[in-house]
Design brief:
Layout (H helix, E strand, L loop, with lengths): L10 E5 L5 H11 L4 E4 L9 E6 L15 E4 L5 H4 L10 E3 L3 H19 L2 H9 L15 E5 L3 H12 L3 E6 L8 E5 L1 H9 L3 E4 L13 H5 L5 E5 L8 H10 L2 E6 L19 E3 L9 H16 L15
Parallel strand pairs: 1-2, 1-3, 3-4, 4-5, 6-7, 6-9, 7-8, 9-10, 10-11, 11-12
Bound molecules: NADPH dihydro-nicotinamide-adenine-dinucleotide phosphate.
NADPH dihydro-nicotinamide-adenine-dinucleotide phosphate binds next to α5.
C-alpha cells in the first residue's frame, strides 16, 4: 500500500520519554506527508487525534481521545500496555516488529552469549588481579545455548547464534521450525530445555503465563556454572533467587538488561557482583528510519478500512 491510496484524516499523537520526537516526526512525515503529527504536549483538541504512537504514556492518556482508531506501541514489548484500563474498546493495538530492531537485539544477544561462551568475564576478573590466566577455549558446538522465545526477536537471535557454530536450542509456545536450531514447544518441554543450557537467553514477552516463569526451582535445573542472559523483562525471573544463585555459584554469570524494578535501585547487590554485567534496558530500540514504514502502512490500512498488521492479542498478552 502507498500513501496515494488513502489520505489519513485526523492527527497522530506521539508520546515517549525515551525517543526523539523530531526524528520520529521526520521519518513518519516522509511517508505520510498529509498527516498531522503532534507531540502529546501540543494537542489542542483531543477529538482530532485518530492515531497514537506511544511508549508508556501516563494513566488516562488514551481515554482523553474519543476518536482514536489505532494505538501503536512504540516498541516490541506490550506488557505495560495490555493491562491498562484506559484503552478504548474496539481500537486495535499494534506493536513494532522492525527487522532493524531484531538485528540490533541479535547483536546484543550475540555479544552477551559469546562473551560467556568465551569465558570473557573470567578473563576480565583475572585482568583486574593482573593474572595471565590461560583457559583453553571450548569448541563453539560444545556450548549449548537455549533461547526462550522464538518470536520476531528470539528467532533472529537464535539464527545468528547458530551461525556462530554454537549448539542452539529454542523454546516457544507453539512449534517453530528454524534451520539448525533444536526447537521445542510447550510448558512440558521447558525443564528439559533448561537442563541442557550452558547459556540461557530469555527473549519471552511478559504475560500472565510467563511472569515468574524462571523461579528458583527452574533456575536450579540449569547445569552448575551456567550463564543467564535476560533481555526480555525482569519479572520473568525471580530476581532474589537469581541473585542467591549467582552468589552461590550455581549460576556462573549473568548479563542483565532488564530488572524487576527499573532503574535498578542503587543498593541492589547485583550492582556489586563481579560475575554480573548490567545494562540499563537498551538491548534494542525502535529505529525510526526503518520502523516508520510499518507504522505508515498500518495507518493507511486503518484509514482505508482494513485491519492493521502486527496486532497485539490482548487475550494472550503479546
Ligand atoms: P514476539 O511476540 O514476536 O515473540 C514472543 C515469543 O515468545 C514467541 O515465540 C512466543 O511463542 C513465545 N511465548 C510467548 N508466551 C509463551 C509461553 N507462555 N510459553 C512459551 N513461549 C511463549 O516477541 P518479540 O520477539 O518481538 O519480543 C520479545 C520480548 O522482548 C518483548 O515482549 C519484550 O518484552 C522484549 N524486548 C526487550 C527489549 C530490550 O531492549 N531489552 C527491546 C524489545 C523487546 P509463539 O511463537 O508460539 O507465539
Amino acid at each position: 500500500m502507498c500513501e496515494d491510496d488513502v489520505t489519513p484524516s485526523g492527527a497522530l499523537v506521539f508520546y515517549s520519554e525515551f525517543d526523539d520526537f523530531a526524528t520520529w516526526r521526520r521519518a513518519l512525515q516522509a511517508r505520510l506527508p498529509a498527516l498531522r503529527i503532534l507531540h502529546s504536549s501540543e494537542v489542542g483538541d483531543p477529538a482530532g487525534i485518530h492515531y497514537a504512537l506511544a511508549w508508556k504514556p501516563p494513566a488516562g492518556f488514551f481515554a482523553r481521545m474519543p476518536n482514536l482508531r489505532l494505538i501503536i506501541n512504540l516498541g516490541a514489548g506490550v506488557d505495560s500496555l495490555v493491562g491498562r484500563d484506559d484503552l478504548p474498546a474496539g481500537v486495535p493495538v499494534t506493536r513494532i516488529t522492525d527487522p532493524e530492531m531484531a538485528r540490533m537485539m541479535a547483536g546484543y544477544v550475540l555479544f552477551a552469549t559469546l562473551r560467556h561462551a568465551r569465558d570473557i568475564p573470567w578473563f576480565e576478573q583475572a585482568q583486574r588481579r593482573g593474572q595471565w590466566a590461560y583457559r583453553h577455549p571450548r569448541a563453539p558446538a560444545d556450548t549449548r545455548v537455549a533461547v526462550l522465545g522464538l518470536g520476531e526477536l528470539g528467532a533472529y537471535a537464535a539464527r545468528e547464534l547458530q551461525r556462530q557454530g554454537l549448539t542452539v536450542l529454542g523454546w516457544s509456545r507453539s512449534p517453530r521450525d528454524i534451520e539448525g536450531v533444536q526447537c521445542h514447544a510447550g510448558m512440558e518441554t521447558l525443564d528439559a530445555v533448561i537442563a541442557q543450557a550452558d547459556i540461557l537467553v530469555v527473549m519471552l514477552p511478559l504475560t500472565a503465563q510467563t511472569r515468574g516463569l524462571l523461579g528458583r526451582q527452574r533456575l536450579m535445573r540449569l547445569p552448575r556454572g551456567a550463564a543467564l542472559v535476560n533481555v526480555a523483562r525482569g519479572a520473568l525471573v525471580d530476581q532474589a533467587a537469581m541473585t542467591d544463585l549467582l552468589q552461590s555459584g550455581h549460576l556462573g554469570a549473568a548479563t542483565l538488561d532488564v530488572f524487576e524494578r527499573e532503574p535498578l535501585p542503587a543498593d541492589d547487590p547485583l550492582w556489586r557482583m563481579d560475575n554480573v554485567l548490567i545494562t540499563p534496558h537498551l538491548a534494542s530500540v525502535a529505529i525510526p528510519a526503518s520502523a516508520a514504514a510499518q507504522i505508515a502502512d498500518n495507518i493507511l490500512r486503518v484509514s482505508g478500512g482494513q485491519a492493521p498488521l502486527q496486532q497485539v492479542d490482548a487475550g494472550r498478552g503479546y
